[in-house]
Design a protein that fits this description.
The chain has 95 residues and is mostly helical. It has 2 helices and no strands.
């Protein structure tokens, strides 16, 4: 079955249900236009939530990168002499 035909059948059924409910005085808000508006609203809501999650993730990644940079810059002066001594020892022990 054609996808467009299936969608049209579903929307016609939705319109029919909305019309019947409207006849009984239950609601006048169930139709394809309100359904489309609801779906678009929820889509934008989900896009906003995704953007928020991405922003939080990026902020944490930036904080982590900053922390690593700070650790590297502070430990370099401590580790370089130690590495130098180890390399000297290896050079002496290798001969």
């Amino acid at each position: 079955m054609n996808t467009q035909k299936l969608i049209n059948t579903a929307l016609n059924g939705l319109d029919s249900i909305g019309y019947r409910l409207d006849q009984y005085g239950i609601t006048g808000k169930l139709n394809r236009h309100n359904l489309a508006a609801f779906i678009m609203l929820e889509q934008k809501h989900l896009e906003g939530e995704w953007d928020s999650i991405q922003a939080k993730f990026d902020r944490r990644r930036s904080q982590f990168d900053g922390l690593l940079t700070a650790i590297e810059t502070r430990t370099d002066p401590l580790i370089k002499p130690l590495i130098s001594r180890v390399n000297q020892f290896r050079g002496v022990a290798g001969h």
